[in-house]
Design a protein that fits this description.
551 residues, 15 helices, Ribosomal Protein S5, domain 2, single chain, Heat Shock Protein 90
């Protein structure tokens, strides 16, 4: 039999394949995130993400007034006090405010602000103190200190950023209800509050709110200090009882100059002349009215049913058209017709000015001068928003002679301590010709002399230049009204200065004459040959006439 052929050994082939597999490298798979069809735009799109409002202000904290340690301390106090005053006045409670600043380390402080206001309901505390852009005043057309719903939550966010410590809040709404204590932080990625502690505590106050924020700050006296802010706050709010405890254990107590609350402002509807086309379109879509004519008369101030009909006719739109169905072209016609229609100015009971008497009393209580005056201008309008300017002026006394005017600015009773040069109120002072009122002024500079000027702007919406609320935007209407108030005070000051100069000149002449009276007596005695006793009678008579003329 022929010999059998041997089959090839499988082991060697397996070994060969295994060896090949070891020697060769596996192919590199294509990147899953970068398919061949991906473009540079696709790569850039993967990096896009939503930015929380908290994250934005965390990186841009200078916009909120936290750009340096000294200013951060003042801003924190200001925001807490503004909230307290607004709450007390809205609840018709005469405010009693405690401000306490405790120093823990060289650059670390605790700010405590406590009030006797109506308190905050438990469910609202986390959102008010732990969420930016949350409040009740943004859409309200009436005068208030707070507007944006940023202030106190931003102060807590700054404290959390610089110290890592939570904002501590104690609040009570009634003597029959318990006091609630919260420790809150802000989740900046989502702009929502994080509650670390929520418990019921014993608190003696029957109602009110206490806020404590630990932050990195710097305490310094002088201009733009906490003390400066407190004194100016009292000047613009004479109805407030305020106690201030400084880091140096100094205590300042301010009693109210008035036991009467300011006139409560009434909320009004927006004026048509202050509404842009985009806002008008939004209002049309959200209106509950079934007819355009009813929409115009119900949703706006100073638009009667007759005027609404005239606007619809001018815009060539049916009065019975459904507001939600108004297209862009029709809305544009309606917008133009509204602005072409002459309307009454918006109502002004939405404002609560300080008042001439209260402003004068506040200045007289804090400033020693020889002349005081104040002017409250009639209400005016910018962009459909009512506003009112008040100006007070003090001259002479203990005010420094060789310095520029001491300018104090207020917006809705809140002192504006920073960004003076960027403010419309300052520009109004610069643009006033003070030399016409017997006051020295260099070109392009503030007037100089022993003068204090206080300017207050009251408005349903103060146009601040930034979220930190430190300067008023330069609207022509605001500058015009402020200049008119300054000019009125200037004319009164000029009359006082010129009268003083005339009296000083007359006194100088009389003193000059009086110094020569003895020589006149000697001359009369020699000419008329008077005796000594007659000469004395003549001198007494001349002196008496001179004194009476001086009176």
């Amino acid at each position: 039999m022929p010999p059998k052929k041997k089959a090839p050994a499988k082991k060697s082939s397996v070994t060969h394949v295994t060896k090949q597999a070891k020697d060769s490298k596996p192919p590199v798979p294509p990147e899953k995130s970068r398919p061949e069809s991906a473009t540079e735009a696709d790569r850039m799109a993967t990096k896009q993400r939503e930015i929380s409002v908290s994250e934005f202000f965390l990186k841009n904290r200078h916009l909120l007034g936290f750009d340096n340690a000294k200013k951060a301390l003042l801003t924190t106090i200001k925001e807490a006090v503004d909230n307290s005053l607004d709450a007390c006045e809205e609840a018709k409670i005469l405010p009693e405010i405690l401000i306490e600043v405790k120093q823990l380390q060289e650059d670390r402080f605790v700010v405590v602000v406590e009030d006797n206001g109506p308190g905050v309901v438990r469910e609202q505390i986390p959102k008010i103190f732990g969420k930016l852009l949350y409040g009740s005043k943004f859409h309200s057309m009436k005068q208030s200190r707070g507007q944006q719903g940023i202030g106190i939550s931003a102060a807590g966010m700054y404290g959390q950023l610089t110290t890592g410590v939570s904002t501590k809040i104690t609040s009570r709404i009634s003597a029959k209800k318990p006091a609630h204590y919260f420790e809150i932080q802000i989740d900046t990625a989502r702009n929502v509050p994080t509650i670390l502690k929520d418990e019921i505590v014993d608190w003696k106050k029957p109602h009110g709110t206490r806020v404590a924020i630990e932050l990195e700050a710097k305490y310094q006296k002088g201009r733009h200090s906490v003390e400066d802010y407190v004194r100016q706050t009292i000047l613009a709010n004479p109805h407030v009882t305020l106690t201030y405890l400084s880091p140096l254990n100094e205590k300042e107590e301010y009693k109210p100059a008035s036991k009467q609350l300011p006139k409560a402002p009434r909320e009004i509807k927006p004026h048509p002349h202050g509404v842009e086309l985009g806002i008008l379109m939004k209002m049309l879509k959200s209106s509950t009215s079934r007819k355009v004519k009813a929409f115009l008369s119900r949703d706006f101030a100073r638009v009667s049913s007759r005027v609404a009909g005239a606007i619809c006719k001018a815009a060539e739109i049916s009065e019975n058209s459904w507001p939600k169905a108004i297209a862009h072209a029709e809305a544009d016609k309606l917008y133009r017709a509204i602005n072409a229609t002459k309307l009454m100015k918006p109502p002004t009971d939405c404002l609560s000015p300080i008042g001439e008497d209260a402003l004068l009393n506040g200045i007289k209580k804090n400033v020693e001068a020889t002349f005081y005056t104040a002017v409250t201008r009639p209400p005016s309008v910018y962009r459909g928003n009512p506003f009112q300017i008040e100006v007070a002026l003090a001259y002479g006394g203990k005010l420094p002679v060789d310095e520029l005017v001491d300018l104090i600015r207020f917006a809705n009773r809140v002192p504006l301590l920073y960004q003076q040069s960027a403010c419309a109120l300052t520009k109004s002072v610069l643009q006033t010709a003070w030399r016409n009122y017997a006051v020295e002024q260099s070109k392009g500079a503030l007037p100089s002399g022993p003068i204090l000027v206080a300017i207050h702007m009251a408005s349903v919406w103060v146009p601040f230049t930034s979220e930190s609320k430190e300067a008023v935007a330069s609207y022509p209407e605001i500058i015009h009204e402020t200049r008119l108030g300054l000019q009125e005070c200037g004319r009164r000051l000029e009359a006082f200065i010129r009268k003083g100069r005339r009296e000083a000149e007359a006194l100088r002449k009389k003193d000059y004459i009086k110094s020569y009276l003895p020589h006149i007596g000697i001359g009369l005695r020699e000419i008329l040959r008077f005796k000594d006793k007659d000469e004395k009678k003549i001198l007494d008579l001349l002196t008496d006439i001179l004194e009476r003329s001086r009176e």
